[in-house]
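Minutes, project huddle
Topic: does the predicted pose make sense with iron/sulfur cluster bound?
PN asked that the exact inputs be recorded in the minutes so nobody has to dig through chat later. Recorded below.
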Amino acid sequence: MVLAVEADDLWIGYLDDNDRNIWIIHDASFKVSMGEIYCIVGESGCGKSTLGKAIVGILPPHAETRGVLKIVGETVIRDRDHYYRKVRGRIVSLIPQNPGQALHPYLRIRDQFKYVLRSRYRGIGEDEIRERSYEALRIVGLDPGEVYDSYPHELSGGMQQRTAIALALSTGSRILVADEPTSSLDAHLRMQILRLLERLNRELGLTIIMITHDLLQARKICGRIMVLYAGHIVEEGSVEDVYGNPLHPYTKLLLDTIPILGSRKKLKTIPGEPPEPGKYMVGCPFHPRCPYRMEKCLIETPPTINAGEHRVSCWLYSRNGPAGT
Ligand code: SF4
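Predicted holo structure (tokens), as shared on screen:
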């Protein structure tokens, strides 16, 4: 079976002023199947957007990458120009946090479709542009007659986000990377966009990779989930596994921060701060904040333990660690 995304020992970083690599993503290995909804969750600064950018092929030119990243079986990380030409906007597209990042403020929506479709299909005619744009706008639940000739500022926030999704769909992308796609919307519109993504997955079989800090959102929409901490995958599994039986201390604490509807209790927070992005940590990256840390956690990187599809990176579950001895 061809996977939508496959990463093996993937490192992503940037060169600092002293030409040293500052790694933002460390040794990431994961697979996303075609047609699944996969969530990448973690606090801000954990590297989730960097990972999303790598998948879509919009890392800045000074980014350093190592390891393997494949999109629908094509190795893309070794030859980034080749990657940009072959898959970005054709197979994989980004739905940005703020639709303003996808929509040019001074161009009518019809001109934005023209630009996107002409870069994808050379020689495409006016009629086909209109046809494809109308179809994409209808799929996302918009009235093309109302939207096509408008400027972005004439549309509501929800309509702008739907239009940004329609632009991505119009080029035939089968993988959508949605980076906090609802963060600029109110609660009602947020639900609408989540339902739309779910419908696109169900009806068109699109692969959705959602990047979010919102665990409630992730639980509503995702099939599988990756928990990222300081650029390290600390836990991965089905939503049932990760929410029903969280293993990593960070995941447990993160789940404790979810507000309970109707409760007057003060919201819980995780004590301490995550390390600065790219800061080199010896041992487990979570050890300064972990209530279960052991001596070993301060000096050795924990191994990844697999229990079927559920995996965790923590010494508590290792046969070689204190919990298993
Ligand atoms: Fe905590 Fe140690 Fe597990 Fe890290 S490896 S999460 S410090 S118990």
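Observations noted during the meeting:
- The radius of gyration is 21 Å.
- The chain has eleven helices and twelve strands.
No decisions taken; revisit at the next huddle.
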